[in-house]
Amino acid sequence: MKNLRTQLALCLVIALSIACSSKPTDDQSQLESVENPEIKEVTANEEEVPTVTIAFKEESTTQIFNAYLALKDALVATDGEKVSTEAKKLAALLTDDAHTSIKAEVEKIAASTDPKVQRDSFDNLSEQMITLAKNSELTSGNLFLQHCPMANGNQGANWLSLSEEIRNPYFGDKMLKCGSVTEKI
Are 163 and 146 contacting, i.e. CB atoms less than 8 angstroms apart? Predict the structure, then answer.
């Protein structure tokens, strides 16, 4: 009797594992998508990230901050070529005489593809962008002032982000989540 129970339990486990591991056929997947258009296949490499935007009273300021944020994201990815490209785009937007010192830092970043050199200048750029953000009228969205205590030779460094989630531009994937939100602008 005990042997029979063991065999039945084993058969049940095998049947369940086969049933649970079977994938739907293409027809079933298409049918599910038709019945519920919200269903979307997402591969392991894709993430659906909600688009967050900001707007300032002056459109030129909005463009400058969007370019700064793209540059920051390229630093997070530790992509020196893309950082340089994004810095050149930002430099082209900095035409006002009031942005001369910001443009000088951006040009240092654009002139290099070495992430260490770019990150050193990004520290100074971020401080100036933080001042600009605080002195400009934000009409929609939020900026988050973030701080990494280990950046800049353990002296700490700041940056701006659209999200409260920490994505550290000073260390990239080495210490992606190092830092904290210190202020909401």
Answer: no
